[in-house]
Amino acid sequence: MAKQKKAQWPWHLLTGLILVVGALLIWYSTSLISYEWRWNRVPQYFAYHAEDAQRAADYSRVESVSRQGDDALVTLLGESGEQQQLTVAGDSLQFNEGDDVAEGDVIGVNRHWAAGPLLWGLWTTLWISVAAGVFGLLIGLVTGLCRLSANPTLRHLSTVYVELVRGTPLLVQIFIFYFFIGTVLDLSREFAGVAALALFTGAYVGEIVRAGVQSIVRGQDEAARSLGLSAAQSMRHVILPQAFKRVLPPLAGQFISLVKDTSLVSVIAITELTKSGREAITTSFSTFEIWFCVAALYLVINLPLSQIANCLERRLAQSD
Questions:
Q1: Nearest to 177 by CA among 258, 264, 257, 253
Q2: How many angstroms from the chain centroid is the CA of residue 204?
Q3: What are the residue boundaries of the ABC transmembrane type-1 domain, all occurrences included (predicted)?
């Protein structure tokens, strides 16, 4: 007799109930401190209408003003006889036809959509994460293989590097890299931040790679060597592909942690997502709203990474 499948809807209902209770608790907590929610202030920190002032280049006179929809085309005639044409928003026009204009006077403004500080912070977090992740992966691969090397010098130096990085806080490493190494070598803060994150990630990736390679039974290497492959070829074509399947989950976790660790580079004045959030709070006074948005943006980065890693893991499992 086939085993009956248990109904799952009660558990889904319980999950939804827990989430609703959690949201209500957050709302109740803010009500205790008389917090006023101001979500209407948040959108401008993602995108806003920027205004670029259009100024007269010389002492001149407004020769003509022609309307073009919501814009106005202003023609200025300078004292030297040269014409200057400016397109400004019609409702921002400061002068009429025939008026005299001094050098540097604002004729009007141009309006256009511009990315707000939270979007710029998100972009900075993304490129720092990608750059540090790529270099960290390369450093970690080399470090992991050096940890398994028969050469004592390579093995000892890689061990010192791993233990030194894993035994000290990332924040301290960023300070040392920027204020000491960066000052001596005249490095930019962006380069110093990426380098510190890459070295930090590389140490953990190195241990992940070492553990993954050691998890492959020795017989795999012996079989590859018996077929005429060199040690390097055996590692490249036989051991590493199998090890990659096993280290994929911890690697994904490490790169997700790297995205969150980028928040620490704000201490060396890199305006990434967390620092952008702090700056937005100082002008909007919408503390909870901004921090919830910052948390959501980190989720926007990390959830796809987690899903991609799960898909790769399932696909690689099917190939076994």
A1: 264
A2: 20
A3: 122-309
What is the percent of the chain with per-residue pLDDT over 90, rounded to a whole number? 33
Residue type, 186: D
d(CA 76, CA 88): 13
Chain Cα centroid distance, residue 98: 52
- The pTM assigned to this predicted structure is 0.82
Question: For residue 176, how many C-alpha atoms fall within 13 Å in the half-sphere facing its CB?
Answer: 11
SS3 93: coil
Strand partners, 86: 74
- Which token pair is 179? 């204020």
Q: Distance between CA atoms of 274 and 307, rounded to whole angstroms?
A: 24
pLDDT at residue number 3: 56
**Window from 114-118, 156-160, 217-221 with minimum mean pLDDT:** 217-221
Q: Name the amino acid, one letter, at 54.
A: Q
Q: How many other β-carbons are positioned within 10 Å of the β-carbon of residue 274?
A: 20
β-pair type (106-115, 83-89): unpaired
Instruction: Map residue 110 onto helix, strand or coil.
Output: strand
